[in-house]
Amino acid sequence: xxxxxxxxxxxxxxxxxxxxxxxxxxxxxxxxxxxxxxxxxxxxxxxxxxxxxxxxxxxxxxxxxxxxxxxxxxxxxxxxxxxxxxxxxxxxxxxxxxxxxxxxxxxxxxxxxxxxxxxxxxxxxxxxxxxxxxxxxxxxxxxxxxxxxxxxxxxxxxxxxxxxxxxxxxxxxxxxxxxxxxxxxxxxxxxxxxxxxxxxxxxxxxxxxxxxxxxxxxxxxxxxxxxxxxxxxxxxxxxxxxxxxxxxxxxxxxxxxxxxxxxxxxxxxxxxxxxxxxxxxxxxxxxxxxxxxxxxxxxx
Amino acid sequence: xxxxxxxxxxxxxxxxxxxxxxxxxxxxxxxxxxxxxxxxxxxxxxxxxxxxxxxxxxxxxxxxxxxxxxxxxxxxxxxxxxxxxxxxxxxxxxxxxxxxxxxxxxxxxxxxxxxxxxxxxxxxxxxxxxxxxxxxxxxxxxxxxxxxxxxxxxxxxxxxxxxxxxxxxxxxxxxxxxxxxxxxxxxxxxxxxxxxxxxxxxxxxxxxxxxxxxxxxxxxxxxxxxxxxxxxxxxxxxxxxxxxxxxxxxxxxxxxxxxxxxxxxxxxxxxxxxxxxxxxxxxxxxxxxxxxxxxxxxxxxxxxxxxxxxxxxxxxxxxxxxxxxxxxxxxxxxxxxxxxxxxxxxxxxxxxxx
Lengths: 300, 354
Fold this sequence. Notes:
The complex is a heterodimer of chains A (300) and B (354).
Chain A: H1 3-16, H2 22-36, H3 42-56, H4 63-78, H5 87-113, E1 122-125, H6 130-141, E2 147-151, H7 158-168, E3 173-176, H8 181-185, E4 190-193, E5 197-198, E6 204-207, H9 210-219, E7 224-227, H10 246-249, H11 252-256, E8 268-271, E9 278-281, E10 284-286, H12 290-299
Parallel strand pairs in A: 1-2, 1-4, 2-3, 4-7, 7-9
Antiparallel strand pairs in A: 5-6, 6-8, 9-10
Helix pairs in contact in A: 1-2, 1-3, 2-3, 2-4, 2-5, 3-4, 4-5, 5-6
Chain B: H1 5-25, H2 31-48, H3 54-70, H4 76-100, H5 129-153, H6 155-158, E1 164-168, H7 172-183, E2 189-193, H8 200-210, E3 214-218, H9 223-226, E4 232-235, E5 239-240, E6 246-249, H10 252-261, E7 265-269, E8 316-319, E9 326-329, E10 332-334, H11 339-346
Parallel strand pairs in B: 1-2, 1-4, 2-3, 4-7, 7-9
Antiparallel strand pairs in B: 5-6, 6-8, 9-10
Helix pairs in contact in B: 1-2, 2-3, 2-4, 2-5, 3-4, 4-5, 5-7
Subcellular location (chain A): Cytoplasm, Cytosol
Pfam families (chain A): IF-2B
Main location (chain A): cytoplasm
């Protein structure tokens, strides 16, 4: 597969199934790439994977998700006793195992998170996270009655799509202004958000507006739950918004156009772990401090 | 079937029924005994179980465990012990398999992976499994029995000359902790909050006074007045949750909040068998709380009032982890933010749901 084929395959996956996380699409693409790869050396194959990853990062999909998924994939597939004679076979096998786990992750999270959604709860969520949607829909299917407030979430206003989707399964949902988060907070029992990336200290990188939401929730003593798959654990350690690299914050097309970034709206913000109560991941329900433990297991 | 085996089976059944009955009636004595009783039952269940693979054994223990837990769903310790035993079975199985296949498994890269690998199916034949599992469980039992002593031995590190210490209700672990400090000739004062309406604090105060510790009994209403004069708060707990939050006797939450307000350290003395892999998700969670007879709050003589007033007497409070400074456990002092690590060490993720 050449660069263009990689990009086409990735874009095609994202088009065919809008519910697929961009990380999963990227990993699927990499497995496909490995299957057709004719690389004869280990470093050759690793190079091909690296190059394909950087190609997919030129799209406008979440940089945090794609980079974390691909980096983990590469680390996982090469974390074995590889010899010149059999490395393709072992790596491909491990790649498939990784992909399989990634595909199963969401279902695991959905069933785990159910115990936190109760009858009569009011939940505030931000934007439209695919996993959060599934958690809420599954809870509704179990005949739980609860109310959802969702922020409209500028600039793409995905909150309306979320409302549409939740209303269809009969969950009473209200769209609120992004600036109404403080106004609504006293009425909700918990905040549930997704994440594009979970960083090393247990903080998250997510759609812009998550940070003020979490700060407000903390001030009013409401739990903030983050729902995200473990392939979103990313090796970054930001301490402030400025520490988050530009590639995470702005679309690839914006950066390529060479615009003055000070004048552009960032698409994500960083929420530090002190504002997060628990994380529901496919590795279990974790406290933010457990994230670094899991990352160390993979990278050290 | 040889004679005697049928007797054994029915004997076990009877024991299980007695255990479940006692739990249902709420006649439970203390947490340590509940833990030991559960373990003893599990040892019997395993030694009488017929199985060909670890997988069958896991399934059997889980099913029996579920029944035991149903006796009192709010008694986390039963569930904890069942899950610890399940984890032991898994570990012993892996150890046996590793031994059989020699050193190959020792360099196992799969273990280093972030995601769970192809699942272990526990179907290989392992004839020596039963013996090694029972041995490991007996070790766990010894560890639990000796836990209170270990904790008490650490008391001089936390109780100092002229300390004024506040505690609530009665905890055997805390009582032993104070007594151990007193034996070291440390002079300190204990304020015991009586813990109405059950008033276990009365007994605690009496026991401490008998051990020649300067003891004062107070009511919960006085906590706010007393708190500024206190050096530290030392309490026990019924159990603690996977995020480090406590499930403790009612009144503990107010106490912990007041301690936070006045910047006093809250030290929890607890054996680690009380650590549950479950989370306190919502206040309504059925298995979290238990309600006692409101008899203490409203006399039967006032029965006609009952039609007009609802009287409830919940037994437990949830205390969020950020109100707790540290846990003194049988494995030494632990920070609350580290509890998730212990949960990972003690329990297998597949066993959380029984």
